[in-house]
């Protein structure tokens, strides 16, 4: 005769439902995306990439040019006084000395 107390199980442990992923934060888009920071940003004339290297140099004949080289498509441009020079004319100038 063993008195079985069916009381041993006690009350179910209180399971506190931890809220996962706290009630989805407000979906406000960060309105401060720095776009269009037009700081003499140079773009490749061929592919539009801004990953370009720009440097000033003088051609062999003394013409100061801005040389732009694209890292993406390897397009190269030479400019003189805002005008793009063709590769041919650059080579031509380079030959002149
Ligand atoms: Zn390019």
Write the layout of secondary structure elements.
Blueprint: E1 52-58, E2 64-70, E3 76-80, E4 83-85, H1 87-95
Antiparallel strand pairs: 1-2, 2-3, 3-4
Zinc ion binds at residues 44, 46-47, 49, 70, 72-73, 75.
Q: Uncertain runs with pLDDT below 50, 5 residues or more?
A: 34-38
* Total number of beta strands: 4
Structural class determined from secondary elements:
mainly beta
Cα-atom radius of gyration: 35 Å
Number of helices: 1
Q: Could you tell me which ligands this complex binds, including any ions or cofactors? A: zinc ion
- How large is the share of residues in beta strands? 15-25%
Mean pLDDT, nearest integer?
78
Trace the largest sheet across and list its strands. Answer: 1-2-3-4
Q: What is the N-to-C succession of helices and strands?
A: EEEEH
Shape: rod-shaped
Q: What is the helix content?
A: under 10%
- Mind summarizing the main beta sheet? 4 strands, antiparallel
**First-to-last CA distance:** 118 Å
Region (Disordered): 1-42
Protein name: TFIIS-type domain-containing protein
Report a brief summary of the structure:
This protein is mainly beta and 97 residues long. The protein has one helix and four strands.
Task: Characterise this structure.
This protein is mainly β and 97 residues long. The protein has a domain at 52-95. It contains 1 helix and 4 strands; from the N terminus they run ββββα. The chain has one helix spanning 87-95, and strands at residues 52-58, 64-70, 76-80, 83-85. It has a 4-stranded antiparallel sheet. A hairpin with a 2-residue loop joins strand 3 and strand 4 (83-85). The longest helix is centred in the last third of the chain and has 9 residues, at 87-95. It is rod-shaped, with a radius of gyration of 35 Å. The protein binds zinc ion. It comes from Kineosporia babensis. This is TFIIS-type domain-containing protein. Residues 1-42 are annotated as: Disordered.
